[in-house]
Design brief:
The complex is a heterodimer of chains A (about 230) and B (about 850). With about 230 residues, chain A is α/β, with parallel strands linked by helices. Chain A has one domain: Rossmann fold (3-Layer(aba) Sandwich), CATH 3.40.50. Chain A is built from six helices and ten strands. Chain A has helices at about 50-55, 80-90, 105-115, 120-135, 150-160, 180-195, and strands spanning about 10-20, 20-35, 35-40, 65-70, 70, 90, 165-170, 200-205, 215-220, 220-225. Chain A is globular, with a radius of gyration of 17 Å. By secondary structure, chain B is an alpha+beta fold. In chain B, about 55% of the residues lie in helices and about 15% in strands. In chain B, a hairpin with a 6-residue loop joins strand 13 (about 575-585) and strand 14 (about 595-600). In chain B, helix 12 packs antiparallel against helix 13 (about 375-405). Chain B is elongated, with a radius of gyration of 32 Å. Classes of the chains: A alpha/beta (about 230), B alpha+beta (about 850). Chains A and B meet through helix 2 and helix 3 of A and helix 17 and helix 26 of B.
Chain lengths: ~230, ~850
Amino acid sequence: MKDFAGPFALAVTGAKKSFGKVDVLKGLDLTIQSGERVALMGPSGSGKSTLLNCICGIEPLDSGNIQVGGKELSDLKRTELEKIRRENIGYVFQSFHLLPTLNAFENVEFPAQLVGMPRDQRIQRVTDLFNDVGLSHRKDHLPDELSGGERQRVAIARALVHRPRLILADEPTGSLDTESGGQVLELLKSLSIEIGVALLLVTHDHESTRICDRVIRMKDGFLISD
Amino acid sequence: MSLSSRFQLVWLLLTKMTFRHWRNKAGHYLLLMVIVAVGVGAFNGIRQASRSASANFGLFNQAVSGQSDFLIESPTQRLLEKDLKQLARLGKSPDWNLVPVVEGSVTAVELINGAKKQLRLIGLDLLALGNLPTLTQQNLKFSEENASWYDWLGSDNEVWVGQSLADSVGVTGGDTISFLASGRKAKMKIRMILDDPDGNLPDDLVLGDLPTVQHLLSRSGELNRVEVVLTQVDRREDKPYLAEIEDRLRKELPRNLILSPTENRAADRAAMTAAFRLNLTILSLIAILVGAYLILQALDAAVVRRRAEIATLRSLGVGASVLFSTFLLEALVLGLLGSIAGVGVGQVLAFGAVGMLADTVNALYFATSVEALSVTSLDVIVGVGLGVAFSLLAGWLPARDATQTPPAQILAKGDWSPGFFWLRKPKVGLCLLGLGGVALCFPPFIMEAGSKMPVGGFVAAGCWILGSALLAGHGLVLLAGWVRPFCSGPVSRLACSRLWDGSSRHRLAVAGLVVAVSMVTGMFQMIESFRDTIEEWFDVRFQADLYISESGVTGAGSINGIDPTLLDGLLRQPNIKYADIMRICYAKPARGVTVLAGVDMKHWSQEARQIWLKEPGTLQSVKGTEPALVSETFARRFGVLEGGVVELQTPSGMQKVSPFGIFCDYGNEFGMAAISQLEWIKWTGSERAVNVSLYLEDRSKLKEMRDQLRIAYPGLDIRNERELRDVALGIFEQTFQATHALSLIGLAVAFAGLLLGLLSIFDESTQTWQTLKHLGFSTQRFILAAGLEGAGIGVAAWVVGAITGLALGWLLVFVINVQSFGWTLLWTVPLANILWFGVLLTVVGFVSGMISASYWNFRRR
């Protein structure tokens, strides 16, 4: 069972992060409610990727707080951060990053295995997701044997399989053509509504923001509009 | 691009990038140089040590004078008084001086701490030498004052030793030293320590006057040889003059004696141990090979780590050939620096190995002295040349891999590796296995001293090892495919899927381990087969109650013996039912040397137990020849497995022996023909026995009798069967020490290679690990997955390596051993050892995986 207690899927307050003398995040505040879809836009170097890494617990903040599923990340040990990532967050990458040696089905099944979902339930869940993303006929294929759009659909299924509370999507259409990108966005929207998962979508593309409830903009480590 | 601008670019890359990487990872590259240095050092060290350990200072010219020009010898190394009489006419020429020499081994006892030391005793006509001071270039003085230098005349208990021997055993002039010689104990006075400021005299040399030494060795009237020293020393390089002298000497020489230039003698001895030294050289080459494998792994890791940099360079227009040259040059510099250091390392290793190898040469070939270790310019050239050549070969593949890196834009898309595509194609591996099979048809190469070098066997071994290494990756994929359905957990599934995918680097890591595993498994079998065969031989052959031989002399080729008077006294002891007396001497066939034994033929053919290859009587001796029982080695060497005649030169001239039975014998690799005692004594003119086996009337008194004999005959080794077996197995273990040491080096390096290989694999999978991290894959799980990956590589390497090792074991036992030594061995497969080795490999693979992953993870953090 998830220990999601608070009203927000994500709450970031006064987040500051520097690399050497470069201040990347300069006191950023952001909240996302459960089931809310938020687009995060901003030029390169504005701190979007750093923010995502901090939300994942991969990079620690210098100061400020991040709460995911009601848990304050700065209070957690490394193993607890890994647990948060495993159970509460789903990640969709621009370059898909499917595990090259596992076939599509195994890739999607993998996070469910990590959270210890029982086998029957897991198989059923993965099969359902493959039906949802329309790739049942491709589930035995290795990532190399799939098209870019197909890979991203597998990646979305992977991000959702363990029923996370928050999906972080880092330019999920950045490597896709317009048509495939559109299909992927629709899929993200429909599945996030169906599951009730919050979505933080990092994008450069205005078209992508259409699936979101809210658009926020970042520049030089600050949120400049919401 | 012109050649000079290309060179400038390579130099720029080398100085601005490669060497900066070196500076940032100084420890890593230093370690690589150490690896090359150890590889080259092991090769050079063994080369120097085996040369030094096989040195033979028995020659008067090498030991004392520095120069003699010709040797007059008997084929059996025993000149008798009748031969000397025949040489009388030669002695009258003013153009040369004849220096008679007798030599043998003695054991110095009652040294400091009760230690024993085997020494070479050389007897010279000191009176003649004293009268011919120009004869000894070193101007050795045999007495403090020239006026009284001949005081020792008439004394039969005075000897001279060199400074290094005096230092090592702690004696000075005037002290006494006790020797065991010919089974007797003798106390000798040290007349003087020979002045040897340059340290030319070996540390086991004892000089004595001719009659004194003959008496000590119980060889009255016998010499080993006569050395011919030219009077006109300034004409030693004058070839026409030397040819004329040789011609004149030959004309006067009795037919049963041999004349040869002095350098031939050293060459003969070198030829006797040629096979031994070649085997060592091949083994020591393995050290360089495994070093090269590590270089390959390390440079490959460097290519993987620098992939982004290489890709950027390619985007900037740096050509593939420039990148190739830069990486190759990096390998060259590594190899060169490491090899130069290796020459020094070799010197250190040689110090450690020389004693061990000298003991082996003593045990297997002839009594030897340890020469001072020296590095020749050839050692430096060969060592550095091999180190650089192997490093370049090792650098070739990573350099080629670097050139195939695409520009940065393509690389940005994720994990990328061109890999070693040829590791994915089974054709080359299968061809090599087939080629190895064909090589088995090659006949052995006959070496100078008559020993055989199984060239086909070695080629087959090399082809099979390399072929199976190339196929090992397919084995890995196959095994992972079988196991994969059973892996349901995320960690095991991930690890197994990566193995099943079989990246080039996984395949390379398995290939390296397969080479080590197959060699070690093959060695296991050879050593165990040898041990079991020798034990079986002992069980069957050695049925007597007590075995007696001269003390301290263990060499298979030793012709020292027990003083006949002493033996007569011993055999008069009560409680002796039967004494099987064995006499041996060298005999010279057309090529090399063999051993001629005099035995009780009735006992040997009808009563004594032997492992017979051909029972006595199954072969028919040829009429008009001496019937002989011959060893398997002898039969194979001289092609008389189905009967025939072998002509041998003996002290009484050419004699023919013909086998009527063939027995298995593992005593030496020269072979042995046993003829009847009476005939042997007639042919050799000697009655000295080399050993005696006693059968007792009352066996219950065996221990009591052994102890009594030991007290009565302190100069003899008196052992029961168990003690004799221990001595033989001791020699056996001695022989395989170098093999063991090199196997261990091979294994250690293979595991180091596995560590480096796994690091490369993880470096190349950075993107995958990053993804896993985002998915919440914990560090512990990552390390466990890496451990399982390492264990999988270990298991696959063990399975493929053990199969290849079994083939190698068969090859070593039934082809290489039979062709090299003429020995048929029982093929023993030490299954328990091989299984334990598999467990060890799996555990080490698992631990290596976890260590590499932890280190990789630590580096990332």
